[in-house]
Amino acid sequence: MKKHLLALAVSAAITTPVLANEMETVLVSAARDGILEASSGSSVTLIDAETLALRPNINVADILRSVPGIAVNRTSGVGSQIQLRMRGGEANHVLVFIDGVQVNDPAQGDDFNFAHLLNQDIASIEVVRGAQSALWGSDALSGMIYIRTVDGSQGSQVSAFAEGGSNDWRRGGISASTGDKDANIRFSFAKTETDGTNVSLFGNEKDGYSNDTAKLKGFYSFSEQLSVNASVVYVDSSTDFDMLDYRSDWETWAPVNPETYGLPIDADNQSNSSQLYSTLGLNYQSADNTWHHSLQYAYSRGNNDNREESEWSMTGFDETHSTAERRQLTLQSSFAFSDYHALTVAAEREEQDFELTSAYLNGNESMDSTGFAVQLKGNLADNWHYLLSCRSDRNSDFDDANTYRLSTAYQLNDGIRLRAAMGTGSKNPTFTELYGYSDSFIGNPDLQPESSSSWELGVDFNIADGLGNVSLTYFDETLENEIANVYDYVTWSSTTVNESSESQRHGVEVSVDVQVSDNIRAGGAATKLVAYQADAWTGDRVAEIRRPEFTGSAYLQWTSTDASQSVAVNLDYNGDMTDTFYGVMSETATLGSYTLLSVQASQQLTEQLSVYGRVENGLNSDYQEIYGFNTPGANATLGLRMQF
Predict the structure, then answer these.
(1) If 524 and its partner were Cys, which of 150, 454, 497, 554 is the partner (CB 3.0–4.6 Å)?
(2) H helices of 55-158, where?
(3) Are the C-beta atoms of residues 591 and 579 closer than 8 Å to each other?
(4) From CA 214, how far away is CA 148, in angstroms rounded?
(5) Nearest to residue 371, comparing CAs of 140, 126, 144?
(6) Angstrom distances, CA of residue 310 to CA of 172, 316, 440, 494
(7) What whole-number distance in Å separates Cα of residue 135 and Cα of residue 395?
(8) Amino acid 14: pLDDT
């Protein structure tokens, strides 16, 4: 039992012993000190390593399409920016962790760009929907995603893979690990290159991509009470992209080409970026296993260099460099003061630095915050669980934020579980919203944090004699002080303001998962979403852009009895949604619905060698997720994997 708890510390979460069971699944993200999946009143989706291995998608964002409440917007092909929205919120309303490190990039609008996160060396993904600011602070206004990478606790292993496919796709990697649950270390490296596809709907230039990702993770237990954990993830990438055609006649200001004005056209543009995520933690538990302390330091850094063609530059190119650093120190203590209740308190100090260098604006800015969180969780009865949390964040640059969350779960009988949650969320303004990034986008230092209030009701059913489950959830959220861009056609510039009107989001989520037989697993999910804001002038409802009203998915997985063969099929559907097209004047455009088919098959050739293949967008669907940007057609990949 104690070794089990120490292993969880690698994920920077200590599970309160009186509420844990070694045979049950522990969620490291739905509570500050971990919580049993069956005890959580929040809407949570857990994707384990076995499921990830069967998914026929190389990018993690495409895997997350199958999670209820999530919508994905990819600019274009591999390596292009990917935004993920949850329950109708903005992309920077979703807080993302990798091994306990917050990875939202302050230099990129506090989004986490999923473009560079590939499905390799990942142990699990937890998705918690609904406001989580009372647990984790800003950025968790709509929910959070916790990604845990593979550790070295499974003993000495060496593995390698190599694959190739459509669009001159080339990818390979190696990993090595050793140790057990008391002491372990693991290193992995993967390199990806592709010629890509054309981002633009015009021309034929391909936009390539490369990605080098290295991970190092370790854990050491000095004793049954004291342990230390550390991890480092480094990503270096390069992405080719096209330019938006805003070329105008110098005398008349008329578009040079009306057909392409405001749309991507072929250009020799490139974005080079690097991300570093690291953490070091010290963990202690008392001899009687009732008191747990953790001290965690996390450091992240993102560098982004863009080189874009420009008719206004004397060199023909504009170059922009942005860097952001985040340093976070967290002290947390959990105490089980009875067999049924546990109290957790946490203090966090966070500092952020931002630097921007461009042809139009140079500057250095910083902000910091101090957060205090209190969490009480436990059982009101054997079948009735609760979690109450509240948090206060003291910010250096804007109003302080106070948030709360209450969730509860009630096991009605062996087949039905009821759950409910309510709470508030907060999202701080970003550096670019506060200070701008060019002479055409002026920041607003008087911005205040966005805030939300939300609630949800859910019911979970066990079906097929416990071999399957069905989950239904209704959610409702109101967003206030939404930060929006406003354009001034007199000065030809834009800025940011806090909207006076509220934004409303509500909907229904459904998911099904069934172990049909020893060899077959099937399921799916669907979300019906209504997301709108009131027009500041007329009060009329205006649909939020890039939020499909309906999304759905289905999957079928087959694995042979001896696990030497497998086949997995996934379907993801995205309904109609709107987007804004900035041409001569801004206008609202409708993006049509689409369905993506993905297939993967694998065959074990020997004890050490296996072959696999996958097809993505097997229906060769022609679709857009952002207006005017082309997306890849059908593509296929074949690979070999060796393990020793």
Answers:
(1) 554
(2) 60-64, 133-136
(3) yes
(4) 15
(5) 140
(6) 36, 5, 15, 20
(7) 16
(8) 29
Count, residues in the chain:
644
Task: Give the DSSP H or E segment for 433.
Answer: helix 431-435
Q: What percent of the chain has pLDDT over 90?
A: 77
Q: Supply the DSSP symbol for 561.
A: T
Q: Smallest Cα–Cα separation from 168: which of 635, 640, 644?
A: 635
Per residue in 68-115, pLDDT (tens digit) is 999 999 888 788 899 999 999 999 999 999 999 999 999 888 999 999
- With 90 as the cut, is the pLDDT of residue 225 above it? yes
On the CB side of 34, CA atoms within 13 Å amount to 32
d(CA 117, CA 192): 11
- Give pLDDT tens digits for 7-18: 333 333 323 333
Tokens of 496: 């940011």
Which H or E element spans position 394?
A: strand 384-395
pLDDT in tens, 507-562: 999 999 999 999 999 999 999 999 998 776 677 788 899 999 999 999 999 999 99
Regarding beta strands 493-498 and 441-442, do their DSSP bridges make them parallel or antiparallel, or are they unpaired?
parallel
Q: Which two tokens stand for residue 480?
A: 């206030």
CA-closest candidate to residue 222, choices 148, 150, 284: 284
At 311 the pLDDT is 72
Task: Identify the DSSP state of 438.
Answer: B
Query: Which run of H or E residues covers position 123?
Result: strand 122-129
* Cα(12)–Cα(101) distance, integer angstroms: 9
* Residue 417 three-state SS: strand
Residue that the structure tokens 């936009």 belong to: 207
Query: How many CA atoms lie less than 13 Å away from 532 in the CB half-sphere?
Result: 11
Strands of 538-583 (E only): list them: 541-543, 550-559, 565-574, 577-582
* 31 DSSP assignment: S
- Reduced to 3 states, what is the DSSP secondary structure of residue 54? helix
Instruction: Please name which of 334, 348, 315 lies closest in space to residue 378, comparing C-alpha atoms.
Output: 334
- Given a cut of 90, whether residue 27 has pLDDT beyond it is no
CA dihedral 629, 82, 205, 632 (to 10 degrees): -80
Q: Looking at residue 15, what is its pLDDT?
A: 31
**Share above pLDDT 70 across residues of the chain, in percent, rounded to a whole number:** 95
d(CA 540, CA 277): 44
Backbone angles phi, psi at 63, to 5 degrees: -70, -40
Task: Retrieve residue 190's tokens.
Answer: 């993967």
Distance of CA 296 to the CA centre of its chain: 21
Locus of tokens 């747990």? 292
Separation of alpha carbons 260 and 244, rounded Å: 9
Could you tell me which residues are beta bridge partners of residue 136?
none
- Its pTM stands at 0.93
End-to-end CA distance of the chain: 30
Contacts of 381 (CB under 8 A, 6+ apart): none
What would the two tokens of residue 338 be?
A: 């009875």
Nearest to 278 by CA among 218, 337, 321: 218
Residue 542, token pair as written in the block: 């205006």
Strand ranges inside 437-540, DSSP E: 441-442, 450-463, 468-480, 483-488, 493-498, 503-515, 520-534
